[in-house]
Write a structure and sequence with these properties.
The structure is a homotetramer of 443-residue chains. Chain A is mostly helical and 443 residues long. The first copy, chain A, contains 18 helices and three strands. Chain A has three domains: 93 residues, Potassium Channel Kv1.1, Chain A; 135 residues; 120 residues, Helix Hairpins (Orthogonal Bundle). In chain A, a hairpin with a 2-residue loop joins β1 and β2. Chains in contact: A-B, A-C, A-D, B-C, B-D, C-D. Chains A, B, C, D: Keywords: Ion channel, Ion transport, Membrane, Potassium, Potassium channel, Potassium transport, Transmembrane, Transmembrane helix, Transport, Voltage-gated channel. Chains A, B, C, D: This is Potassium voltage-gated channel subfamily C member 1-like. Chains A, B, C, D: One of its GO terms (biological process) is action potential.
Chain lengths: 443, 443, 443, 443
């Protein structure tokens, strides 16, 4: 009953695969399940009577046990490529090796799968938000007529691809949007004419020609400026349609908060105001060019209605993944914006002092800018490599600053690529998997 | 013959590999093939007579059975990295586990291969369209002389790499194209001279100098403007060659519809017109400068003939994959175009109102634009970061709008990269595989 | 006792898995451990007495032995995908095959893991530098009150995310930075006014108007130019705060050398000077516009304080990896800078001579540049595709040079992408692994 | 001796692993090695006497045999992830399945490795060209003193990193290059002064001032224009050094052809000429400004000597891989250049006719260009998004053309990224593997 010879073999039948090893190998890590097999049984127990047991059966995964046994043999714990972390941890816990350190070369094997699962859940959550809305459509779960029309209306308005009716409705909306845009463009013509008739003379002509005549003409023009009434009524018609659609979408929307947070919906709400304000203010609006211009600026939100046309391409996975990527990397986007602003401020100040220092040497004399904000404007235009040429450095020091600014601007754009790309690749792989496997019921 | 003890071992010999497990493990999922093994045989059957069977043989894949058994042991279904979906599903169906849910960490294993197979078939279809044409070449399958010359002619004209004759023909075509281009460039000179002689005076001189003399000179010039006849005849010669070649390609083409839909072929057809029209209209063309200019604009399609030179590089896999990527991601390209147009319209309107609001404060006075289309033009030039500088914002609000526009434009280009890249990588891997394996007959 | 027949089978029980092979197979590589098994035992030994042994047991990895045996069978040494290099080398050494050449198709299997491990250690070292500082926080290891406050202070100042106090402190610092920036912007206005009052007249008016009056006015202005004292004192207050903060950070910093080498800290030190110099120099500064301008240029370092705001986003892994990527690829960055400078010099010279050669033909006459440095400036602006338009080629040869320059510039930016991306992907994978696995204690 | 029952089991002991299957399974593919096992032995043979054999031993790879047997069971041939193509084909051939079609899902497994091996050999060849030169250094293989100095000299001159002497020599060369550049820049000043003194008056002043005085002044200047002799002699000194170095490199170079084809060496040869020509021509050069300008243009090759500084960074793997990528994708680079040229020609012509058509409507009148080459120049500047603003469209049609041109230009740059990136990634992985494994002798 003494300790058996360490050179004796031990047969470990794990799930039918017979692993053989020396007892001495197994005694490498005291306290583990395998070590306990080699301990002599307590004297009083029945097992202590017979010859020492040499073969043990475990109903466990035989492949992973190879790695466990490898740990006893080489004191390095590796793992196969295709192992899942849960499985590995459960096996290690069973064999009493939960604390065993994984070899560095195998760390990435676990984390890759880990990350992918996490990405999957993130994408799943994003997609399910849409899915839930679709499930609302199911008439089977509606508790009555009162609730049945809501999802029906929502799907009709929100998913142009879902039915023929939805397609027609979406087409009509698009036509109204195009119509509103055309009206809007017509209006800019009127406003530009009004502006060039009234304001330009005031600036130029004031000093030259007679001021009185001018002023009277201006007031005449001011009275003349009036939107053609038919345009106003046409726009009112468009606004009525947009308002009705928005109202229908708002009451049928399953999640009001998310509805209000969507920038497209906010734009829809805001672009109803101009017509209403103009109707209320009436003729007075024409006398207040600033109000009229502000209303015009808000009208440019009509353009965003065209973005709804993307709904026709809804199934484009790559675009949805791109949006999700931008959403989920808001930290990086914020950081890039912060760096962008810091670059603008820094190079703008440098440019200002570079030019001042360079030009204060007599010879050249006229600066292209009069305050630091013009310098900042120059910096943006240089960093983005637009380079209008309205402002450019005149002195050698300013040119040096500008050269560095342009080079930095070129590189900033390039640095964005890897950050976006790596995330996009991960989410895209996961989104593709979901698209393939969902219909076949594997998931 | 009662139910045997649940702790008893069961030996499952699957394809020669002996898996051992407890009967209790196998009884985890009732109704499956393994569960049925543990049910007592019906009393009357011969199997009910002898001792209960403990070892079963199945002529199935032994490796995958490890994962099946793992499902019974841990209630999580995993799969190996290198499994093919068909194989996995067939095995699961055999063991009665077709409904079993795959663990999340293994979803991507299946989808990756799935996607790759689909990409492969997409690329295969794209390449086979070409291949079919090549197969037509085989004289063995021609049913007679009448059909034999068609594929021969097609290959001769369409694949410059295929034979020495095809190379020569392609070279001659290229020479003719270069010749047509040179003629076309010569012609622009004549038209520019004519234009600056006739139109610039009309604009400037009309108000200043005497009108009569001018008008007479113009008519004289109008009569003088005449393409040198030898250029016209030379171009006619080129057009004859191009027409003959196009006709030969059209009648020998195995797929007329695809032939007509190819933009290069359409360009070939269109660029035959200018010479013909000029021949028909004769001297009258010179009196109608607009017609003459339109014909010139169509002539610029001659340049596309140079693109056929790419045929000499036909084997460049990367380019063919790039074209296929663009083709197959038409949805994303459309979406980007739509976003592009929306950006132009939106920032154009914002810029217009930003400038108007900023400048209406007296001080500065002259706008750089007179209508909204000039604003849209400015937006394109800013979004693409070209920035000519013919139009630039003068007020602080306009500069702010322009800064945002330029930043958005810089980022829009960057966002295109990941979408294209991910698809390109997939198709390229697949195209490379096809190129390697096709000749060695593995596929 | 003679040599047994070469066709006899040999049973190699490796870790429980029985491999069988012919003796002739094993005799392929003399001198290896397996070969020695087949050698007849020395006559005198006890083993030489009995029948020749046919079965041997080895307590080694059974999976890798398959590949070892495959080497004997096919004379090609392959390895599995998921093997770690250490393990493979140890096994090969045990079997006496340390010199065996790996088949080419398996080279990448080893190097991939190798590289990843190396990346991991590089990233680990980079992160541990931060980690060590955090560990200093542990009060358990502090040997007394004297040392305990240092890490506490350091973490308070350096890691805005660590506690509420740190957040407040960071917020106050940011407010002071914004304040300093506002003062700095105010000052630029004063300096621009002074400059346009004094220098522009000197340049233009000198030749035209009376010089004496001018000069006197200038001196008057010179005396008038004075920073509003309250701005100076406000800035002094900011500088005091910055100085205190910098001092506290300096004495509590665990690694003074690294502290001094950080560009942000150097900027912090430098931007303390302007106020001090102005206080010391006093009224004299206003009489020395160059000194005043230089001080202003140094003040633009205040902007860098805003970059500390990134500390609020500290957990963004992608950004830290991006910085590490740029750090560790300094060689590539240097090389690109060198190539950039060479491009500027080369195309600048070409442009100069292109223009000179092209313009020396009579007709056009005024060059846009007067020395080669203006050409170099033009080259930078063209390579970065900024294109202000202050200088552009006038002759055909200059335009050709410019076209090549612009195309090269566009491609240089594109070439940067793959170099950065490949490194970023590697480090990001590794950083992600570390982030996932560190908390769960696997590493 | 009759055919045994098809339901009987067959035991296939492949390399020690016992696979069991039914005889009926194995009879799926007649003519293969396994099928033959089930054929009854010829009556006369000794094997026909005893009971039919049920167990066979094969000394082959047991893992791959699983897939072979899987083919018999499911009629689909799959393969493991980590198999090498050679190994798979050898096994299939042994089992008589050389023609068996691989399942589509496994095609990419083979091709990936295939491609990587090919990339490896391509990179190996590229690197060995360098390696061979280095091996020449080995004194052991030198057959005598006569041959020993050549490689020593080559390494000394070509690899700045190899020894201290090489570093010094490279430093001296760099200093000489900088010196030559400074001289070159000095000279451009002289030439610019000469040009503005002589040619600008000729253009402008000719019509205004007296011509005689001008001409005399010009001749005086012509005589005055003279490079400062000390600059000429200094440059001669530099040229002597460069010539000596080039000569030494040329005679010690192990591969003369490759030496002559390297663009850097060609540049070295060409930039020796200017000084020599000037010495020969002597004073006459000053009277021929075109010759002098051409010599100056050639002198700009001095800049390329700075690129040799990259030698100090020689170990940067990423750069060498980048160069190799560009080399090996010359087809794609050519294609992109061709597309680039076609785009320039096409959009240039469109722009010309767009402007002509748009402007021929009276109102605006002055074109920005006078011939088609100016249009092509505009197209390059727009496609690269440089946009100087010297030429821009004035009519709506021209603006439309320009907008399309700018958008196409922006996308062309983006399309380059994936093509380059995919190749770069492949070569980089392979180069990294080589760098890691070469020193440890695994390769």
């Amino acid at each position: 009953f003494a300790m058996e010879g360490l050179d004796d073999k031990l047969i470990l039948n794990v799930g039918g695969m017979r692993h053989e090893t020396y007892i001495s190998t197994v005694r490498a890590f005291p306290g583990t399940r395998l070590y306990k097999l080699t301990e002599p049984p307590p004297p009083g127990s029945p097992a202590a009577q017979g010859p020492p047991v040499r073969e043990f059966f475990f109903d466990r995964n035989p492949e992973l046990f190879s790695y466990v046994l490898g740990y006893y043999r080489t004191r390095q714990l590796h793992c196969p490529n295709d192992v899942c972390r849960d499985v590995l941890e459960e096996e290690l816990a069973y064999w009493g090796l939960a604390e065993a350190p994984l070899a560095p070369c195998c760390w990435l094997k676990l984390s890759g799968r880990e990350t992918r699962t996490q990405d999957f859940l993130s994408w799943e959550a994003c997609e399910n938000a849409h899915l839930d809305e679709r499930l609302l459509l199911n008439p089977m779960e509606g508790q009555g007529l009162r609730n049945a029309w809501k999802p029906w209306l929502w799907v009709l308005l929100d998913q142009p691809q879902s039915s023929l009716g939805a397609k027609c409705l979406s087409l009509i909306s698009t036509l109204f949007a195009v119509c509103a845009l055309v009206i809007f463009f017509q209006e800019t013509e009127v406003q530009l004419d009004y502006f060039s008739a009234n304001f330009t003379p005031m600036g130029h002509g004031a000093g030259v020609g007679g001021n009185q005549q001018q002023q009277q003409q201006q007031q005449n023009n001011g009275l003349v400026y009036r939107r053609a009434p038919h345009l106003l009524y046409l726009e009112l018609l468009c606004a009525l349609w947009f308002g009705t659609e928005l109202f229908a979408r708002a009451i049928s929307c399953p999640d009001k908060v998310r509805f209000l947070c969507s920038p497209l919906n906010l734009a829809d709400i805001f672009c109803l105001f101009p017509v209403l304000v103009e109707l209320v203010v009436g003729d007075k609006a024409e006398r207040q060019p600033r109000l009229s211009l502000t209303l015009g600026a808000i009208r440019s939100l009509y353009v965003l209605k065209l973005v709804r046309l993307l709904g026709f391409l809804e199934k484009s996975l790559a675009l949805r993944v791109l949006v999700h990527t931008l959403h989920s990397s808001w930290k990086e986007v914020c950081a890039f914006l912060l760096i962008w602003v810091a670059e603008i401020l820094f190079f703008g100040s440098l440019f200002l002092y570079g030019e001042l220092l360079g030009i204060s040497t007599p010879g050249q004399s006229e600066l292209h800018f009069g305050d630091i904000f013009t310098c900042l404007w120059w910096t943006v235009i240089t960093l983005t490599t637009v380079g209008y040429g309205d402002i450019y450095p005149l002195s050698a020091m300013g040119q040096l600053t500008a050269a560095v600014t342009a080079t930095v601007g070129m590189c900033t754009g390039v640095l964005l690529v890897p950050v976006l790309l790596v995330r996009f690749q991960r989410y895209y792989a996961v989104a593709l998997a979901r698209q393939k496997l969902r219909p076949s019921g594997i998931l």
